[in-house]
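>> received
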Amino acid sequence: MINPGLRGRGVLVTGANNRLGIGAAIALGFARLGATVFLHYHRTPPGQGIQADVYRAQQEKSADEVLTAIGDIGGRAAAYQADFSDLSTISPLFDAAERFCGGVDVLINNAATWSADTFLPSRGSRGNPFIELWTASGRALSPESATRQLVVNTVAPALLTTEFARRHVGRAATWGRIVNISTAGSECFPSEASYGASKYALESYTRTAAQELGQFGITVNALALGPVQTGWITPALEQALLPTLALPRIGTPEDVADVVVFLASEQARWVTGQKIFVDGGHHS
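>> returned
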């Protein structure tokens, strides 16, 4: 039997209020293995975000449904709301997580914001089906779209990592895990320019943090995700995506959670500074 060594570990998962989402699946995965889980979430105001009804409805909720699901399997969890566009919320979030967990051993940087933006002066797609699908709700790249996505998706995870490391060293801990959630499209993301750029920068932070924090027993890795159904993939978009996948199905949050839990486990103790594609062969 493989023992992942996660029982009793304190785990902070950001972006975990979507019951159908990746953060929720990750939190449940850790809870099943006996970890104490602290959920961060931010409720998207009604009418904002991706224009898919199921996804939007989930993002507007609190984390109560996820907490109930964890309780139903005998897990221990609590939640805290914070908007990472306000970077002053990071230290109080860690304070609350430490009070509940006793110490944060694992940090999962999953929270992100998204808005489609493009360098195109108009919505001309030149026949690209993905750009056609997304730019219907997108707009030209602006200071607002770029700044919010870079702050929430890049700067906030970097500062969360900094806070994690400071507290880890302060309590003389020798074991830690950080997993950052990126995208398989980070290097080039037509119609989602700022989102892709924010995740590409996060991957650079991942590699630097792995080099600098390894001396303290902390591993740092990133997952590059392909299309994962969390309520945002419409039937039309699914049909456009399926031919791009080596494994001909859309991903599930559990597909991601299993790899996250592996990277936090003792079995991945010598894996750090890596970008691991979890995408059904979408990038190949």
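>> The chain has one domain: 10-278.
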